[in-house]
Structure formats: C-alpha cells, structure tokens
Amino acid sequence: MAFEEAQHSVELLLTCNRSAPLSQGFPGTETELVVHGLRFGELTNTARYALINHSDMKDDCLFCKIVAGEIPSGKVYEDETCIAFNDISPQAPTHVLVVPREHFDSLDTATDAQRATLGHLLLASAEIARKRGIAEDGYRVVINTNADGGQTVFHLHVHLLGGRPFVFPPG
C-alpha cells in the first residue's frame, strides 16, 4: 500500500465515529488497515503516531471542525478556552466530551504552554458535572492518550462520564 493510501485510510479511521480501538480496523467489518505488510494493530505506537501525524491533522481534525462550528455538536458548554458536547456514542447516561479550542494531539504531546488549558478542562468538567446534577453521586474524568490508551480522535479531549456507578480498575 502506498504511503498516501495508508495516510488516507488512517485519516478515515480517525474521522469516522468509532467505538473500537484503532487496532481493530473499521467497526462491523473485516477491513483492517495494512501498512507495509503489517496490520495497523501490529505497528508500534511510535509507528502508528508517525503515520497518523504525518499530515497536518488540524486541517482534517474532526474536533477542530466542531470547535469552528463547521460540524454540529449538541453543545452543552462553551467558554473562551473550550467547548463541550455530548458524545455521539455514550458509554454512560452522561458522557460529555470537553475539547480545548487549541489543537494539540494528546496529553503525551502537551507542553508547559498547555498547562493552563489542561487545568481549565478539568475545572470545566467539574462545572458541567455540577450543572448536570451528577457531581454529588460522583463522576469519572478520562483522557485517553494515543492508540493503546484508546484515543481515536487525535485532538486532546476529556471524557466526563456519570449517571451510573463505575468500577475500578477501568478497562
């Protein structure tokens, strides 16, 4: 498979609504991305990251398009730093994604320049939890990072989950 084809396939994986990890291919099909004879799931995290981030993902980033208002989102919260909207594939009665307006791929690539943004995302999550009436009973805040961490859209975001009991350890 030519690199351009692989890159396009990876971009499709990242922009479609998926509940399965990247390593499982397209949901509901037997299709799996193959790069240089290896299934995507067999690539190292470093190779996956390099392939995924070879192009300027900001132009094709699903969450950047939502932040810009190009894609509707069911917005539940908005301020100068972030936007929050209901997850289209909820894993709990309340499942809100809190997304920074600034694009950075993951927690792994965040720098000191994003320190205030990261803290703001957590405080915004707590505010949303209070407004949704789930704070008193409890809620979970999750940041999936890179492929093995379950990240499927490479624009850092926080999952706010609540409305049901959670067990530990997760996963």
Describe the structure.
This protein starts with a helix and ends in a 9-residue tail after the last strand. Helices cover 29% and strands 17% of the residues. The longest helix is centred in the C-terminal third of the chain and has 18 residues, at 115-132. The model is unreliable at 1-32 and 53-57 (pLDDT under 50). A hairpin with a 3-residue loop joins strand 3 (75-78) and strand 4. The protein is built from five helices and seven strands; from the N terminus they run αββαααβββαββ. The chain is globular and about 45 Å long. Strands 3-4-5-7-6 form a five-stranded antiparallel beta sheet, covered by helices on one side. The protein folds into two domains: 3-55, no CATH class; 59-162, HIT family, subunit A (2-Layer Sandwich), CATH 3.30.428.10.
Overall form: globular
Mean pLDDT: 79
Give the amount of beta strand, in percent: 15-25%
Using DSSP, what is the number of strands?
Answer: 7
Layout of secondary structure:
Layout: H1 3-15, E1 34-35, E2 38-39, H2 45-52, H3 57-60, H4 62-67, E3 75-78, E4 82-86, E5 94-100, H5 115-132, E6 139-142, E7 158-162
Antiparallel strand pairs: 1-2, 3-4, 4-5, 5-7, 6-7
Which short descriptors sum up this protein?
HIT family, subunit A, alpha+beta, 2 domains, 5-stranded antiparallel β-sheet, two-stranded antiparallel sheet
Give a short overview:
This protein has helices at residues 3-15, 45-52, 57-60, 62-67, 115-132; strands spanning 34-35, 38-39, 75-78, 82-86, 94-100, 139-142, 158-162.
